[in-house]
Write a structure and sequence with these properties.
The chain has 12 helices and no strands. By secondary structure, the protein is mainly alpha-helical. This is ABC transporter permease.
Length: about 240
């Protein structure tokens, strides 16, 4: 029996592919539009949906807890409990109910994101200087107006921080979702683990890392653009 690795049938291979080199740029480029790009787009879509829904739910819960202190304890308990459940276990618990579907993945991803989003957003709201709140009250603003015109704008750094952490974490968790649905970069990584072909493994893994770094950088930039007063304070 030959000691050479058994490569998948990729047609007429180049010398790089035939030798199973560490990374074959020609094969990666040739399969970008048919293999890597669709998986990357699916990964982005799954992440955006999860973080978007999770942020809306967490923001609503944080605002309610900010207004009604009694809600903080039960909301924190539920969010922290969901956060402690390993993603694969949560997938397994949901599959009998929602099947091997995108819905299963999104429910798990949203549940897993709530704790970090809820706690960070609530902390940001509670750390708004009371002098600013009292000044807004003295100007005749209602409680709702104070929330939207004073507290939420001043809490933007905490909101962006929560989104950065949660987005990067979700990008990693989406890769695990390949055990449930054949989608995203995790699907390519899983297939690569079952194959000795190095380029598929390195290419899909590098894209996942690049996606996380890009998302974090874009959110950091968005946070700086949304908080010009913070830049002025640092430059002073």
């Amino acid at each position: 029996m030959s000691d050479q690795p058994v490569l998948p049938d990729y047609g007429d291979p180049s010398p790089c592919v035939a030798d199973n080199a560490s990374f074959c740029t020609d094969w990666f480029t040739a399969h970008w539009s048919t293999l890597f790009w669709p998986a990357l787009a699916e990964h982005v879509e799954l992440t955006v949906l999860a973080v978007g829904f999770g942020f809306v739910l967490a923001l609503a819960a944080a605002v309610l807890a900010h207004f009604q202190g009694w809600f903080t304890a039960p909301a924190s308990f539920v969010a922290s409990f969901l956060y402690t459940v390993p993603p694969l276990a949560l997938f397994q618990l949901l599959v009998p109910v929602t099947g091997f579907s995108v819905l299963t993945v999104e429910i798990a991803l949203v549940a897993y994101s709530l704790y970090l989003l809820f706690t960070t957003v609530l902390t940001g709201l509670r750390e708004v200087p009371q002098d600013a709140v009292r000044a807004a009250t003295g100007m005749g603003l209602t409680r709702r107006q104070i929330l939207f015109r004073v507290e939420l704008p001043l809490a933007v750094p905490s909101l962006v921080s929560a989104l950065r952490i949660t987005t990067v974490m979700t990008i990693g968790t989406v890769a695990i979702a390949a055990y449930v649905i054949d989608a995203g970069l995790g699907s390519l990584i899983l297939k690569a683990l079952q194959s000795p072909f190095n380029t598929l493994f390195i290419g899909s893994g590098a894209l996942a890392v690049a996606l996380a770094l890009t998302a974090d950088g874009l959110l950091l930039l968005a946070g700086r653009l949304l908080t010009p007063w913070a830049r002025s304070r640092r430059n002073a």
